[in-house]
Amino acid sequence: MINKTTEKSIFIKDYSKNDSCNYITLSSVILSKENEYEGIIVFEISSEPIDVVMLENNSSGGLGKSGESYLVGKDYLMRSSSRFQNESIMKTIVKNQAVEAALKNKTGTVIIEDYRGVKVLSSFGKLNLPFFDWVILAEIDYQEAVVPIYKIRSEIIFISIFIFIFILIAVIILSKMMTYPIEKLNNAAHEVSKGNLDIEIRSKLSDEIGVLTESFNNMIKKLKHQSKIIEEEQKKSLVSLIDGQEIERQRLSRELHDGLGQSLIGLKLRYESCITKLRNSEDSKTGAEKLRELFDKTIDEIRRISNNLMPAALSEFGLLTAIQNICNEISKTTNTVVKFSVYGKNQIKNQNTDIYIFRIIQEALTNIIKHSGASNAHVNFYFKENEVLIEIKDNGKGFDVSKEKNIKGNGLANMIDRTVILSGKINIKSVISEGTVIEIKIPYQ
Predict the structure, then answer these.
(1) Neighbours of 412 (CB within 10 A)
(2) Residue 31 above 70 pLDDT?
(3) Which terminus of the chain has a smaller tally of CB atoms within 10 A, N or C?
(4) Domain spans of the chain?
(5) Contacts 24+ apart (CB under 8 A), 194-197
(6) How far apart, in whole angstroms, are the C-alpha atoms of residue 285 and residue 276?
């Protein structure tokens, strides 16, 4: 007899290592309505349906090129077909950390070596099936598994670098926007310290820097105004000083010409009247001739001093004639030949301007005679539409313009002062052993 438990039982047989064909056998007892034993029904299932589920050969999906999933029994033999080995069912032994853990009802993912000896990333777990102690494993080669990680890491690094560069550029731009107005103020302050007051900083900012910029501009305007006032006062003082010198020179010139000069001429006339009485004595005659020569030299010297103090040609014939006369006189009495040239029509109509320009030329020529050792010099006047350009040049030994003592000495300071009074500009260029060129631009006043 078959008991009720046996009658109602279903038996499932695992793969057998000794079977030539891999089948799973299912059997069950058949009972009649009266619960009488009538027979046994047996089913055999091949490995193909299991492989349809477990075996993945699509490299573009699933577990990629190296991934596979398979079943392993408690005897460590593979229960499904391998992707990489033929006829692996009940022949390929898989005994590793993942299988051991799965047989102990553990699940997880570990990095191990698979049945091929290849390093893989393996996920494992035990199947909850009656009659079977099977575990399932899903594995992929470690190198292929980490490719997305490396890709993501590279993308993260690239994105991080891009964000860093973007933030760096943004910080630089913002810092420039913040520091640029301060740099402008700093540079402007340096220019002001050098004496340049023609500065105005434009700013559209309305914050503290904008207020500071506006205050700086107002300060510059006030400094410029005060500087103009001081400059005008200095100019007036300089004009008064130089005009006072000219007045004193004119007075001395008149005194020499009208007073001492006339007295010497009177003495000479008296001398000539007395000389006629002493003509019989040869010695007296020789002494008288020497005395007359001395009178003539003294009178000529008085005239020269008077002419230097205030040239008669300047007041009687004008600036150009006076300069021509002084050039001719220097050419005759010194070793320097001075040539005078005029280009254009004289448009200077102010007597004080004539005097100032004459003194500038006179000072320059005196310097050439005393200090340059030049054999030739040129004085050129170029009368233009709004200004006169004066060029004084020589072929002398030259000097170092950068040394302040050379500017303060040699009369150059007086030339510069007179040019400033005339609202003009002076440029001095000199090369050692080649000569000096002085260019003066004076507007018509």
Answers:
(1) 19
(2) yes
(3) N
(4) 4-46, 58-147, 197-310, 316-445
(5) 197/223, 197/224, 197/227
(6) 9
